Amino acid sequence: MTKYIFITGGVLSGLGKGVTAASIGNILKSQGLKVWMQKFDQYLNIDAGTLNPEEHGEVFVLNDGSETDLDLGHYERFIDTHLNKTSSIMSGQIFQAVLQKERTGKFLGKTIQMIPHVTNEVKSKIFEAAKQSKADVLITEIGGTIGDYEGTHFIEAIRQMQYEVGKNNVLYVHVGFLPYLGSSEELKGRPMQFSVHDLQSMGIQPDILICRADHHVKKSMINKIALFTGVEEGAVIPLETVSSIYKVPSILQQFQLDKIINKKLKIKTKRKNNSRWQEFTKKIDSEKKKTLNIGLVGKYMGMKDTYFSVIESLNIAALWNKVDLHIGWIDAEEIEKDPSNIFQILNKWHGIIVPGGFGKRGVEGKIKAIEYARKKKIPFLGLCFGLQLATVEFARNVAKLKDANSTEVKPRNSQPVIHIMSEQEKKLLEQNYGGSMRLGAYPCKLQIGTKSYKAYKKSSSHLINSTFVQKRKNEIIISERHRHRYEFNNKYRNLLEKNGLVIAGTSPDNHLVEIIELKNHPFFIATQFHPEFTSRPLHPHPLFMEFIKAALRM
């Protein structure tokens, strides 16, 4: 029978509930348990696909095309598992499902209410995830903060779970913050206590408290919180801010969190060590041979979580290559304002990345940055929109197609080297924006002899087995995740190839261009897919690995 762990948060948002949940999953998986993870978000959106990245951070795409919150990226990186649509549920999905059932007569004329109809729908999503995954343990994070009225249906549903499946099969973890008062130079435990009292007033007694803090937590503080919340002293665990989120599982294990969970849920495990993860975390504090400066050219500068998976993929690859990494944020609009200043902006970087994005803003600045990387032989990695703009730059400045552009940026232009995918055009005309792009994992056949081919072949031992769809003789077909509406226009393919553009990867039917690169360049690769979504701490993505290696040679 599946065991259920529910993670709630209090005092304030942005505490690291997602990292805490992922770390618990990491620990339990290291004991040989099958772990599945899930997040409930309070928003009335159906999914995260239409959320503003400058408000909510990146949209993390799963293999099945689900557009999710960035916490799903934490889950996948920590438990090294491909999740699916059962792992990401928003209130919009819950209410939509309830109303659809009401419209089709599934409730047989009953009055539809928050309890039991909405809470039953929430529980059905929990049971569906457990059934499909066949997990020993399902870990569910509840988004938001205790006390938010918009999340009460989730709290009530998980309260009912202890009576539905039995108290020995449910465990509640509450993550709260201990603020630091500078005037008296002390941490304050009262906000955490009030947060637990709010949770208790809703019928849930937490089994474990995780006390987040930016300063040292004294034993006396732990004792006081335990006394006032009714949580066993050994189950009140301080979690102070550390230099890397990947250290959190080891810290929680130091406080015997695994034993506390196993005792409450009556789980018998064959003790396994987490040695591979521990070996990886040792790289964080190990001596580095060099510091690399990598410039990330984007337009979403208001929130760095917008490019979270890109940053983590770079950090992971840097650790495996034993280098310190300094990532610089380059506003593409600043380059647009004064293109003559591009040398001062870009000359200090050992490598340049143009990540995914949408819309016209900052496009010309990104194209200028790509041109600089191409001409100055600076290692360059383009991701999704980065491939499209690299194609535009090459078409304009090498193939001399002066009006070359993307129809996303300039709908009417005489040389649309990037154009909308045929099946996407109707969706845009119908204003069908949500969940309608080319989403999820698709196969890509690599061109033998290219840098991309060599990178994947060389690093195959680092990849998750399922990343390779096929590998026989010299042929390599990979599977990578996508999120786009526009594509390389094959009308210009022969012309661009004649001018030196290398088509390094295509769909198996050779219709869609997936990877481009340049021959006479240390490293110039751009992908239509998002390799950052499949890079993991124990399996760094080969393109990020080779990008860092190329930057090291600069």
Detailed description of the structure:
The relative contact order is 0.11. The longest helix has 20 residues, at 114-133. The radius of gyration is 25 Å and the shape is globular. The chain has a ten-stranded mixed beta sheet, sandwiched between helices. The protein has a seven-stranded parallel beta sheet with strand order 5-2-6-1-7-10-11, sandwiched between helices. Helix 15 (363-375) crosses helix 16 (385-397). It contains 20 helices and 24 strands. It has 554 residues and is of the alpha/beta class.
| Poorly predicted ranges | 461-466
In total, the number of domains comes to 2
Largest sheet entry: 10 strands, mixed
Overall 3D form: globular
Please give the CATH architecture of the largest domain: 3-Layer(aba) Sandwich
Helix content: 25-40%
* Rounded mean pLDDT score: 92
| CATH topology category name of the largest domain | Rossmann fold
Radius of gyration, whole Å: 25 Å
State the end-to-end CA separation.
55 Å
Give the CATH superfamily of the largest domain: P-loop containing nucleotide triphosphate hydrolases
Can you count the beta strands? 24
In what range is the share of β-strand residues? 15-25%
Q: Helices and strands: which structural class? A: alpha/beta
CATH class descriptor name of the largest domain: Alpha Beta
Q: Please give the count of helices.
A: 20
